Amino acid sequence: MADLQTFPGKVAPAVEISSSLGHYGVRDHMRTGFANVKSELISTHPLEASEKNFLPNQEKLEFKMLRNTQGLQAPLKLQMERAMASKIQRLPCLPSSMIALDTLMGTDECIGFEDFLNVAGDSEVTCDPHLTMEYKLGLH
Q: Mapping DSSP to helix (H, G, I), strand (E, B) and coil, where does residue 26 land?
């Protein structure tokens, strides 16, 4: 939601940074981490936006080709299978491999940065399973 602030001779939209606030209106840094405001405002390289949108664009192209060759039911069935496979996970305190979703999307045969950098299973810090389940279920 951008409010308009008036300056002498100019009207500029104000920038609002969204954050996840806890019960008392304070951001919960223990669960969400610290905010990096600079990375949310500007991109570091012109190709960064293209790389972020590469997989969704490939998926749209694949679904369009499927719809043109096999009809409307083929992309709908594939989307439904992917949605069901993305819901299969372990408890929130345990890392999930999401092997079924990777197999359906065809990314199980490729090794990318997300496969070996910042993997949740390699973390030295563990979380309390009871607290994470209460947080996930909204009982906190």
A: coil
Buried b / exposed e along 63-75 (16+ C-beta atoms within 10 A) = eeebeeeeeeeeb
Q: How far apart are CA 93 and CA 120, in angstroms?
A: 10
Overall pTM > 0.90: no
Which residues partner with 4 through β-bridges? 13
Residues 6+ apart with CB under 8 A from 12: 4, 5
Ordered DSSP codes for 19-68 = --B-TTSSB-HHHH----HHHHHS-SSHHHHHHHTHHHHHHHHHHHHHHH
Q: How do residues 24-36 score in pLDDT, each as one tens digit?
A: 778 777 777 777 7
- Alpha-carbon gap, residue 19 to 28, rounded angstroms: 9
Written in H, E and C, the secondary structure of 86-126 is: HCCCCCCCCCCCCHHHHHHHCHHHCCCHHHHCCCHHHCCCC
